[in-house]
Structures are given as C-alpha cells and as structure tokens.
Amino acid sequence: MARKSQFEKQKKTPKFQTRVHNRCKICGRAHAYLRRFGLCRMCFRQLAHRGEIPGVKKASW
Question: Are the beta carbons of 56 and 43 closer than 8 angstroms?
C-alpha cells in the first residue's frame, strides 16, 4: 500500500517528465502496473474476476 505522502508527491507536476511514476488508481502500487487499465496486477485480477472490467474475462480452453 502506498503511503499518503507518495500520493501527494504524485499530484505535483515534476521538474522533469522522466520523474513521473505510474501508480495504480486503487491501491497506489507502482510495480506491476498495466498501462492499458491504469491498475496494478493484483487490482486488475480482482476486478476481472468480479466482472467489473468490460471486455475482460478469464481464459479457459
């Protein structure tokens, strides 16, 4: 879980564009971030299992 200070730091525009970090919209995790959905892998998995992400379903063959 990201700390509150990290969320506040993220809101400010950085001095250089390369300092921007992608963070999960739900939990704030910086690693294992899926750009297409704006979520980390764990939040993506939970939402996909519940069927809350349109167009995503569990693969079975």
Answer: no
